[in-house]
Specification:
Layout lengths: L5 E7 L3 H12 L6 E7 L5 H6 L7 E6 L8 H9 L4 E4 L5 E2 L4 H11 L5 E10 L4 E5 L3 H9 L16 E4 L14 H11 L4 E13 L4 H5 L3 H15 L7 H13 L5 H5 L8 H11 L3 H4 L2 H15 L4
Parallel strand pairs: 1-2, 1-4, 2-3, 6-9
Antiparallel strand pairs: 4-8, 5-9, 6-7, 6-8
Helix pairs in contact: 9-11, 9-13, 11-13
Protein name: Glycosyltransferase family 2 protein
Organism: Parasediminibacterium paludis
Pfam families: Glycos_transf_2
């Protein structure tokens, strides 16, 4: 068989109803030069038995992980198994917006052959709060990203990994140490290494949110946030703090979790704490917690701290 143009990689875990919706949206695609790779973390054969009914609809390769890999290593496993020229990760609770979604990605690839990553507008479906919203990256947002990838610390303009398609030659996998910040940390890495990314101003993906997602229960988890964001600091380096967006990001992390000492971080992270981060903690410690919750006051204090600590970088 010839090499498929696209590998649609699905990291599966038990959710048959969601997986069925995704597979049906794949079966409906007008563009057909693809394979589907399913890497299964489920504790039983429910997914294996279910996907057999799709073998006649498109090329489907199923792999049961000998041991559960978890998020995001199961995403990476799909890439390792993939044969396509482009990798299209799809979470099992996301799906294609219409039957021409895949074709739209391919048309963009053909029209812009120098690009290595494409990301699209998407429809966000919040089943927890029962609302939907179209998320786009307007021209101003794209300008900000061009000026600095650290704008992703303020807002994830790329969306989740289902919203992007990646050329096989891009030499990065998702960092398996991350759970909550795994996607935008990956995008920052792409931009820092000048991987060529292009936006598609069309809703091609429906992205779901539900209370079973890893990001849902790690959002306010102090252990996860302290560990992951200090690992991220290791990756981007102290020079990132020269950018006020990165500085403000860590200011808000410490403020939101009311970090008052290095010892509180040491409960979750054993690496070095940069002098600027140490100074940031000490600066916040001197401020009334009630006032730190006020946006204008917090921003003013953050900027003052930023100016004072620049000499430490």
């Amino acid at each position: 068989m010839s090499q498929p143009f696209i590998s649609i990689c699905i990291p599966a875990y038990k959710r048959i109803t969601d997986l069925e919706r995704l597979l049906n949206s794949i079966a409906e695609q007008t563009y057909q030069n693809f394979e589907v790779i399913i890497t299964d973390d489920s504790p039983d054969d429910t997914v294996k038995d279910f996907v057999q009914s799709y073998n006649h609809k498109f090329s489907l390769l199923y792999f049961k992980n000998a041991e559960p890999l978890g998020t995001p290593e199961n995403w990476n496993e799909g890439f390792r198994k993939a044969n396509g020229k482009w990798f299209k990760l799809m979470h099992d609770d996301d799906y294609f917006a219409n039957n021409k979604s895949l074709k739209s990605f391919v048309q963009e690839i053909e029209q812009h052959p120098s690009q290595e990553v494409f990301y699209s507008a998407f429809m966000f479906e919040d089943t927890i709060n029962n609302y939907t919203k179209i998320i786009k990256c307007n021209i101003f947002d794209r300008l900000l990203l061009h000026l600095s990838p650290y704008h992703l610390l303020k807002r994830n303009y790329f969306g989740n990994p289902s919203c992007i398609i990646i050329k096989r030659t891009v030499p990065f996998l998702y960092d398996k140490r991350f759970k909550y910040i795994v996607d935008f940390a990956y995008y920052i890495e792409l931009l820092l290494y000048n991987v060529k990314c292009r936006y598609i101003d069309e809703v091609l993906i429906y992205v779901g949110q539900n209370d079973s997602q890893v990001t849902h229960y790690t959002f306010k988890n102090k252990a996860v946030q302290m560990y992951e964001n200090h690992i991220l600091f290791e990756k981007i380096g102290s020079k990132a703090l020269k950018n006020i967006l990165a500085f403000d990001y860590y200011w808000r992390i410490y403020r939101n979790f009311q970090i008052q000492s290095i010892d509180e971080i040491r409960e979750y992270y054993n690496g070095d704490i940069h002098p600027v981060l140490r100074a940031m903690i000490q600066f916040q410690k001197k401020l009334p917690k009630s006032l730190l919750t006020l946006g204008i006051f917090s921003k003013s204090c953050m900027f003052t701290c930023y100016c004072i600590t620049r000499k430490l970088l």
